[in-house]
Every structure is written in structure tokens, then in C-alpha cells.
């Protein structure tokens, strides 16, 4: 009898405990209104505010809270690569015409920050600038939309995308976080207005920008998602030096840096702040890529380009560099988590991925000798961002020295770095190949010549590569498409050796524990409008 | 009085006896006895010189070779000053860093000093409009602190050792010229310069034979100060990411990036390059002070 009573008491206690925990948990999960989120952006300044033109987090972390997009990855499930939800549309449409027609109904209740109503015309015009920009206007991801034939506005609330061919790559490409919606009247008056100005329909209204210092926004009271955003406003501080950013989180002068910090910074913050800091981590759809300028001798010689990749010991470098930098995974041109990515066995057949590094470096030396480029000296352009640019740069230079190459580094801020690439003023540049939604078919479009992918700075033309890509994108059978991806990858990294992929990154975001609502994803571009972020203070 | 007699004072160390009677060794010993701090400073400078010149033989490891099996190792017998985050031996990087400091420090000091000397003496000798114009240009250049001026030059020409040398040399020129000019102005008025003019000597001969040797004392003191300033400026530029770039071994660069990141977990990465900069600049300052005491007749009697 006594035993039964004890068991009952214990059971009741457990039920109460679970109940209390649930109530506490539910209470903790209820978003609170108010407060200002301060976060850091690890750059000196964005090259411009124009999302269509730029490819850097410095731009998207600065402007995303001010703008809306047509569709996006579910902000409550951002790690998914298929969970697309509407932002400006009312519901995700079903394609018609054998997957070639997509009609989106636009919300009728969306207001621009100037008070006027957003219409389907605004959405369609913005997308036309992304897909097929007018002469003199740059769209960084134009090549993502090769399948798009035309964009129509059948009525005031509908935007219809008509495709040349059905493609699995279309919907992920449409969720691109850089494809923010601009006002038609402004774009038509001055297509470059958005490079230096901000006026959107997003959860926050722009208040001020100080070059190299900060950008600020306040809550948009007319935001179409009722109740959101939860924050009164945000302040984003530009801080290119990592030590400054870590100190800012440590001293609670900033709550988070959304891009990602290296393992050492995470360990340091966790050690010092304990449960006041929470860490989220994820594989990162970003890789360090070396682009060579094909117009500069001797980089016009494929043997030299192949020697550059053969010299680098990725298999041994990756685990070691992962201790000090936010890189981790060896991979080819496709995000390693994707079924389209090369397996280790497939990779090991490519130059630079051979398991025997001595054999690989011997081959590199032979190729350099054959090309008359023994002991070649050159300068590598790099970006003045610690993680992982400078770390990967230092590692690569040491790797290249092992085949007799003498490499110096020119490290410049983000603006001049882009400028040097765009003007072709470099021999070799260390770049990042970063993407929003994981979408291998469009992600690998980065390796296409400049005429197709405007942000490829390799200064080469290659019809054979374009044809290979085109065939792959049009294929709808997944198994065959994977085979075509291998052919394309082999061509890019070996046959033509246009580019050299160094390492894939690993994203670690330590944040103050009072920051709630934000979830990490494989891309530091997506889920940055801050509408669902709140402060549990 | 022959014109060459005027050069005597600069090499005089002891006024108790004519300097010609003392050997170099004796004079050196006298310097050590009278200037112990200066001697200590000189010793530090010599250590740096030896490290910089003999880096290939003295450094136990390559300064740029990564060793992932020895990342952020504390000082040990294998790595006397420990290793950085890439596993590079800190002692080797400091030894090679001395070379970078030497190249930058001496190049800037010598080039900046020599150009300043020529312009300063020339400005004082010719006077008039040339003097007025040059001084106004120097006024403008000196309105900017050395590091700000160097930052501006690097922003225009870019980073790298050569550009850093240019960046630091430019602001040193007016500083030298201004000091040298003030000494040269008084020398211009002494009778032997008038005598040289009366004898029909050319401007170049008068400047080089009669004026320059007599401003050598302040000039040499300035040069030593400039070496220290240039090393400090190079370290500052590199720390700001605007000087020499990885993987070149340079003390300021060693304080950047990894040193900041690992300041609490691997403090030796920051401590030893910082110590190298501090000791070198300290040594050069002490030696410069001692040199001033020795060369300045007013200080010599104390």
C-alpha cells in the first residue's frame, strides 16, 4: 500500500514537473515585443545597397530587413532545401503547362515604406531586372534564370513566369534572398537608384547609414504580417576585425554576428559566457574558390592552372584548418550535403584531390616545367576579411610554395576587391562561392564564363562548358542529371581547370541567448529579414 | 683656417685629449663607460642587426612553413617561443621579422634623412623664395601625424614592403629637413662660409664641404630616431592590415589576426612579437640619446 502511494506521488510529481516544464517552455517560446537588436556585419561596408547587383553578405545583411521577396525558404525551417513559402505571394502555386507556367497571386495589403501600395507590376519589373537586366545594368545571378522565357502581369495582383523549359532549379532560384522587390516607378526613373538608396516594403524602415560604422532600421508599423516584426528596431555595426566582433558579443555591445565565427571564437565565448551564449552551427553552402585570370600569362595555359590545384593537399589541410578557421569539408563544385555532390571516390579522380599528395605535387612540378613556369611568382588578390579569406590565403600560399611557386598576397577591403575583380586587375584571386538556397543546378552556374554568369571574373570564354551546363540544366531525370554534373565538374576542375575549389565552409554562429526566433541555415544570405527575431530580456 | 678643419667637432668624443690619439677600441670603451644605457641600446640594435642579416642561418625553421601538427604550441625546446595558429615557429618568424624591420627602418631613415638633409641644407643656404616655398610645403606635410600621412600614402599606392617604405619615408623628409635647416641657418652666417664664397667656390662645393659636415651631429641623431619611428610605423601599418601581408614575417603583422584571436588561449603569439618591437625601439632610442650626448658639445661637459 505504501509502495503504491509512493509510486502515485512520484507519478504525480513527474506529471507536474512535465506540465510546469511545458508551461515554462511555451511561455519562453512566446515572442515578446520590443527592444533593439544590435548585430555586427564582418565587413567595412557593402559595395552597394543593390541586392540585384551584389553577391556579398555585406549587402544582404545590411538591406534584407528593409525589403520583401516573392518567395523564400521557410524562416522557421531554414535548413530545409525544399520548404518554400510565400513572402509577397498569397500561396505557393502549382505549375501548369507541364511545369512551364507559374502564376503567383500577390498580397493586396503590402505597402511601400513611402505609403504607396505594392502591386504585381512592381514584382514583375523587379524580376525582369534580375532575369534580363537592361543594357548597362548588372544582375549578378542572371544565369540562374536561363529557363525563364518571360514574366507577365495578367492582372494587378498576378505575376506569371513562363519558362522555356521545365526545370527543378526554378523554384529554388526564385527564393533567392538577393532578389528583393524594388518599386517599379523608381527603377524605371533611375535603375541605379537602389545602389545608394533604400526604400522597400520589408519589416523595418531605413533610418540611417554611416559609412564604415552602422546601418539602422526601425519597426515598420504597416508591415503586412500582423504582429511582426517583434523588434522595435535594429542596429547593424560594421566591424571587419574579428577580435572587435567577438569583444562586442562578449561585452554585450552586440548580440550576434549572423555570418559565422571560427571555432576558437566559439570556444572562447562559451567558456566566458556560459549559458548566456547559444551556439548554432551548420554545413555552409559556401566554399573558397581560386579564380585565375586567363588573360594574364602564364595562366592562359591549362597546365599552369592544373598545377595550382595539384599542389594543394586538401585532405590533410581541411581537418587542421577547421580548428582555426570556419572551413571544414573537402568537396567539388557541388555543396557536399547534396545528393548531386561527388562522392570521395569520384573526387579522388580529380586533380588536387588525389589521395597521394607526393604524386600530385610531382605532377604539378612536371606541368609547370613543361609550361616553362617553374618557380613562377605571382600575386594573389585577397579580401580583407579574416574568416576564412586570410586564413585560407595563407594556407594556399604555403601549399603552392611546395611546388616552387612564389606567391605574395594583396589584401584589400571589400569594395576595392570587387573593383579589382570586375576590372580584371589581378592575376589570381581568392573568392568565396556562396549561395542562398541550396540549388546545385544554379549554384554551379558560377563557373560559367562572364558572358553567362556576370560575376565570374576568370576572363575566359568557353562554349563547350556552356553546352555541358545547358544539357545538364535541361535534364529532368535526376540520375542522368547527376551523371551530367560529374561531366561538368570534371570539365571545370580538370579538363579546362578554369577554377580551383579549395574547401567548403562550416558555419558557427554564437549568439547572446536572449536572441530568439532566428534559426541557422546552410546559407548566411537567407533568413535575414529579422521579422521573426525577438529578444527574451 | 682650411675649410676641412671645420669637420673636426663631429667625431670628437672626449675633449680631454685629441681624438686622433685614441684608437677605435679605446673610444668604444670610453663610450661604454660613459653611456651604459646607450651601450645597452646599441647591444639590442646589434642583436637585431645580426638576426636580420643572418636570418637564414639563425632561424631554426622556415618562417612561412605551416606545421599543422604543432598548432598554437606553447614555448618548448622544439619551439623556444612557441608556434602560431598555423604551427609556424615564432622564433623563426621573429628573426625573419627583424629583417623586415631592418629593411623598412633603415631604408626609410636613410632615404628620408638624406632627402631631408639635402632639402634642409639647400633651403637654408639659398634662402629667399626657395626657402619660403620649401618651408610652406613642409608645413603642409608636417600638419599630418606620421602614421596618418603613411596611411594616406598606402591608400594611394597599395600595400607591400616597397609601398610601406615609400609611405613612411615621405613624412620623414620634412621632419629631417626642418631640423637640419635650423642648424644650417647658423652655419650659413659663419665667416668661413663667406670666405668660401669669396674664394669663388660653387654652391655644391660650399654645401657639401662646409655646411653638410657641420650639421651631421643633429642629422645622425635624427637618423637613429627615424629608424625607431619607421619600425614602429611599419608595425602599426601591418597591424592595421595595410603594411606587409601574410605570409611575410613582420612583427606588426604577427600581432594582427591570430594574436588577437588567441590572446587569451595562446598569449605567446602576441607577447613575443610585441616584445621584439618594444625592445628594438627602446634600444634605438637609448642609443640615439647616448649619441646625442656624445655629439652635442653642450652635453659633453656634463
Structural overview:
The complex is a heterodimer of chains A (537) and B (302). By secondary structure, chain A is an alpha+beta fold. In chain A, helix 9 runs antiparallel to helix 12 and helix 16 packs antiparallel against helix 17. The N terminus of chain A is likely disordered. Chain A starts with a helix and ends with a strand. The longest helix of chain A has 28 residues. In chain A, helix 13 links the parallel strand 13 and strand 14. Chain A has 17 helices and 18 strands. Chain A has two domains: 228 residues, Periplasmic binding protein-like II (D-Maltodextrin-Binding Protein, domain 2, 3-Layer(aba) Sandwich); 224 residues, Dipeptide-binding Protein, domain 3. In chain A, 54% of the residues are buried. Chain B is mostly helical. Chain B has a domain of 186 residues: MetI-like fold. In chain B, helix 4 runs antiparallel to helix 5. The longest helix of chain B has 37 residues. Chain B is globular, with a radius of gyration of 22 Å. The relative contact order of chain B is 0.16. The N terminus of chain B is likely disordered. At the A-B interface, helix 7, helix 8, helix 10, helix 13 and strand 14 of A face helix 12 of B.
Mean pLDDT of chain A: 91
* CATH architecture verdict of the domain at 96-281 in chain B: Orthogonal Bundle
Structural class of chain B: mainly alpha
Q: How many domains of chain A? A: 2
Strand content of chain A: 15-25%
List SSEs of chain B in N-to-C order: HHHHHHHHHHHHHH
Strand order of the largest sheet of chain A: 12-16-11-15-13-14
Keywords:
heterodimer, A: 537 residues, alpha+beta, D-Maltodextrin-Binding Protein, domain 2, Dipeptide-binding Protein, domain 3, 2 domains, 17 helices, 18 strands, 33% helix, globular, disordered N terminus, B: 302 residues, mainly alpha, MetI-like fold
Amino acid at each position: 500500500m505504501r509502495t503504491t502511494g509512493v509510486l502515485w506521488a512520484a507519478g504525480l510529481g513527474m506529471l507536474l514537473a512535465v506540465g510546469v516544464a511545458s508551461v515554462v517552455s511555451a511561455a519562453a517560446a512566446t515572442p515578446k515585443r520590443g527592444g533593439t537588436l544590435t548585430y555586427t556585419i564582418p565587413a567595412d561596408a557593402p559595395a552597394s545597397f543593390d541586392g540585384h547587383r551584389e553577391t556579398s553578405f555585406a549587402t544582404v545583411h545590411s538591406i534584407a530587413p528593409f525589403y520583401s521577396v516573392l518567395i523564400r525558404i521557410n524562416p522557421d525551417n531554414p535548413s530545409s532545401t525544399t520548404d518554400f513559402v510565400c513572402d509577397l505571394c498569397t500561396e505557393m502555386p502549382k505549375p501548369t503547362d507541364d511545369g512551364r507556367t507559374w502564376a503567383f497571386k500577390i498580397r493586396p495589403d503590402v505597402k511601400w515604406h513611402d505609403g504607396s501600395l505594392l502591386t504585381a507590376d512592381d514584382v514583375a519589373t523587379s524580376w525582369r531586372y534580375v532575369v534580363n537586366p537592361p543594357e548597362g545594368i548588372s544582375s549578378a545571378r542572371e544565369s540562374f534564370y536561363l529557363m525563364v522565357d518571360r514574366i507577365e502581369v495578367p492582372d494587378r495582383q498576378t505575376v506569371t513566369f513562363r519558362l522555356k523549359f521545365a526545370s527543378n532549379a526554378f523554384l529554388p532560384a526564385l527564393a533567392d534572398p538577393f532578389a528583393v522587390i524594388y518599386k517599379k516607378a523608381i527603377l524605371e526613373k533611375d535603375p541605379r537608384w537602389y545602389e545608394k538608396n533604400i526604400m522597400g516594403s520589408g519589416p523595418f524602415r531605413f533610418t540611417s547609414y554611416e559609412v564604415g560604422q552602422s546601418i539602422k532600421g526601425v519597426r515598420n508599423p504597416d508591415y503586412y504580417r500582423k504582429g511582426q516584426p517583434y523588434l522595435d528596431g535594429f542596429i547593424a555595426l560594421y566591424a571587419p576585425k574579428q577580435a572587435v566582433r567577438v569583444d562586442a558579443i562578449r561585452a554585450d555591445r552586440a548580440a550576434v554576428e549572423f555570418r559565422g565565427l571560427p571555432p576558437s571564437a566559439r570556444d572562447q565565448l562559451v567558456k566566458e559566457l556560459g549559458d548566456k551564449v547559444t551556439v548554432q552551427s551548420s554545413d555552409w553552402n559556401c566554399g573558397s574558390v581560386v579564380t585565375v585570370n586567363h588573360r594574364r600569362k602564364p595562366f592562359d595555359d591549362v597546365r599552369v592552372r592544373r598545377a595550382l590545384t595539384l599542389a594543394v593537399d586538401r585532405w590533410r589541410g581541411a581537418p587542421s584548418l577547421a580548428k582555426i578557421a570556419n572551413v571544414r569539408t573537402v568537396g567539388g563544385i557541388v555543396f557536399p550535403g547534396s545528393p548531386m555532390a561527388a562522392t570521395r571516390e569520384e573526387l579522388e579522380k580529380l586533380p588536387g584531390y588525389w589521395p597521394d599528395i607526393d604524386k600530385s605535387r610531382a605532377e604539378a612540378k612536371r606541368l609547370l616545367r613543361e609550361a616553362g613556369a617553374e618557380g613562377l611568382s605571382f600575386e594573389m588578390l585577397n579580401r580583407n576579411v579574416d574568416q576564412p579569406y586570410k586564413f585560407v590565403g595563407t594556407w594556399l600560399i604555403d601549399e603552392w610554395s611546395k611546388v616552387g611557386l612564389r606567391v605574395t598576397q594583396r589584401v584589400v577591403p571589400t569594395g576595392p576587391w570587387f573593383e579589382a575583380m570586375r576590372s580584371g586587375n589581378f592575376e589570381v584571386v581568392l573568392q568565396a562561392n556562396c549561395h542562398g538556397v541550396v540549388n546545385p543546378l544554379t549554384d554551379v552556374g558560377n563557373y560559367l564564363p562572364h558572358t553567362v554568369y556576370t560575376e565570374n571574373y576568370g576572363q575566359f570564354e568557353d562554349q563547350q562548358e556552356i553546352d555541358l551546363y545547358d544539357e545538364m540544366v535541361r535534364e529532368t531525370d535526376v540520375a542522368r542529371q547527376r551523371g551530367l554534373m560529374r561531366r561538368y565538374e570534371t570539365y571545370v576542375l580538370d579538363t579546362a581547370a578554369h577554377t580551383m575549389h579549395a574547401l567548403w565552409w562550416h558555419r558557427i554562429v554564437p549568439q547572446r541567448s536572449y536572441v530568439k526566433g532566428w534559426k541557422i541555415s546552410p546559407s548566411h544570405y537567407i533568413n535575414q529579414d529579422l521579422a521573426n527575431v525577438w529578444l527574451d530580456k | 683656417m682650411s675649410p676641412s678643419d671645420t669637420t673636426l667637432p663631429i667625431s670628437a668624443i672626449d675633449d680631454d685629449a685629441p681624438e686622433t690619439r685614441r684608437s677605435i677600441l679605446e673610444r668604444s670603451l670610453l663610450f661604454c663607460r660613459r653611456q651604459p644605457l646607450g651601450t645597452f641600446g646599441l647591444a639590442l640594435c646589434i642583436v637585431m642587426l645580426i638576426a636580420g642579416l643572418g636570418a637564414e642561418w639563425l632561424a631554426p625553421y622556415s618562417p612561412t612553413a605551416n606545421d599543422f601538427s604543432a598548432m598554437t604550441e606553447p614555448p618548448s625546446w622544439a619551439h623556444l617561443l612557441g608556434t602560431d595558429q598555423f604551427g609556424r615557429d615564432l622564433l623563426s618568424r621573429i628573426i625573419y621579422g627583424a629583417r623586415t624591420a631592418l629593411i623598412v627602418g633603415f631604408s626609410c631613415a636613410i632615404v628620408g634623412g638624406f632627402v631631408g638633409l639635402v632639402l634642409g641644407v639647400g633651403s637654408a643656404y639659398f634662402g629667399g623664395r626657395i626657402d619660403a616655398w620649401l618651408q610652406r610645403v613642409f608645413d603642409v606635410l608636417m600638419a599630418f601625424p606620421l602614421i596618418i600621412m603613411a596611411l594616406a600614402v598606402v591608400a594611394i599606392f597599395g600595400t607591400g614592403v616597397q609601398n610601406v617604405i615609400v609611405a613612411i619615408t615621405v613624412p620623414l623628409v620634412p621632419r629631417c629637413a626642418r631640423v637640419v635647416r635650423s642648424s644650417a641657418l647658423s652655419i650659413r652666417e659663419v665667416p668661413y662660409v663667406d670666405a668660401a664664397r669669396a674664394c669663388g667656390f660653387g654652391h655644391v662645393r660650399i654645401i657639401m664641404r662646409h655646411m653638410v659636415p657641420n650639421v651631421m651631429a643633429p642629422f645622425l641623431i635624427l637618423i637613429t630616431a627615424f629608424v625607431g619611428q619607421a619600425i614602429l610605423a611599419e608595425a602599426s601599418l601591418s597591424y592595421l592590415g595595410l603594411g606587409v601581408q601574410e605570409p611575410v614575417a613582420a612583427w606588426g603583422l604577427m600581432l594582427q589576426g591570430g594574436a588577437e584571436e588567441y590572446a587569451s588561449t595562446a598569449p605567446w603569439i602576441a607577447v613575443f612579437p610585441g616584445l621584439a618591437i618594444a625592445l628594438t625601439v627602446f634600444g634605438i632610442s637609448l642609443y640615439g640619446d647616448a649619441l646625442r650626448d656624445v655629439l652635442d658639445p653642450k652635453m659633453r661637459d656634463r
